[in-house]
Description:
Elements: E1 7-14, H1 20-33, E2 39-46, E3 52-55, E4 74-77, H2 79-84, E5 91-94, H3 105-112, H4 122-129, H5 131-140, E6 148-151, H6 159-165, E7 169-173, E8 181-183, H7 189-197, E9 203-207, E10 212-220, E11 226-227, E12 231-234, E13 237-239, H8 246-262, E14 267-275, E15 281-287, H9 297-304, H10 309-323
Parallel strand pairs: 1-2, 1-5
Antiparallel strand pairs: 2-3, 3-4, 6-9, 7-8, 7-9, 10-11, 10-12, 10-14, 12-13, 14-15
Amino acid sequence: METPEKTRVAVVFGGGSTEHAMSSVGAADLLDALDTDEFEIVPIGVTQEGRWVLGAGAGSSPASTDLVPGGGAVTVVDARDGVARLGGIDVVFPVLQGVFGEEGTIQGLLEMADLPYVGSGVLAASVAMDHDFLRKLAVASGLPVAPYVVLRDSSDVAQADRERLGLPVVVRPARGAGGVTEITDWADLPAAVAAARAADAKVVVAAAPAGRRITVGVLDTSGQPESSVPGEIVDGRVTAPADLDRAVERRARDLAVEAFVTLDCAGLAMVECTVTAGGDVLFDRIDTMPGFAPGAAFPVVWQASGVAYTTLIAQLVKAAVRRGTGLH
């Protein structure tokens, strides 16, 4: 009796963003979660300089200590060589975080190489990373969004906009991580804008209404997006399920799916929102490739929903193979 051929999965992690270490830690757990009886695993680390480090197999590691730890033979190549050596790969699981990966660049590269991959396509990934265009699309689609203003050439917010936004506000780079500041006094705006501009010339200043930070996972492995139970973010940690009124929970879950569909996402996403004291649910952001490290929001909310980590990973890989590349 012939042994069924395994699906060859390339897990790409690391990358050139400030979230390099987070991506690498999440990749270690993802590599452990892939069933080696069903999948042949090819770990590929990307250094912050853009070099691709090809591991020998599951559990092997790039030579750099800031990538997945372990042993095994590795080969270091440039990006073009790295893609060429992906011949024979069935599907790619890109767990790159932030710019230089999560925002559509590796998705475009894989589309050109006709390699199926887990997660959203180029446009959804790109829009989700740009808080300017993300909010424009959300507002145009009727999603409830807190008031905001975008600063390009100016470092100040007009008086009319200040009255519309109120205080506090969150000042953040439109793209990229870091440089996010909440201010309660307009006198602190210049310093907050300068911190954001260290990451991106385009800055978003958004109202920050009082409320609870709620996050919901969306999973689409069958053409029908499903939402997880909501989790609550407190001091950077996620606990699930969040203690919410049933009607508010339903609104948060419906909003997550609506945002996923609005952006034409695929595979998976995490949606963050603010639940106000009055029970309103405001859309904040969507992450098209959430982290997979221990305690990360995506595995936490799905485990609370009854979906085991290993099952989650296997479903995503199989769905990506079925979906393939190109327009859908």
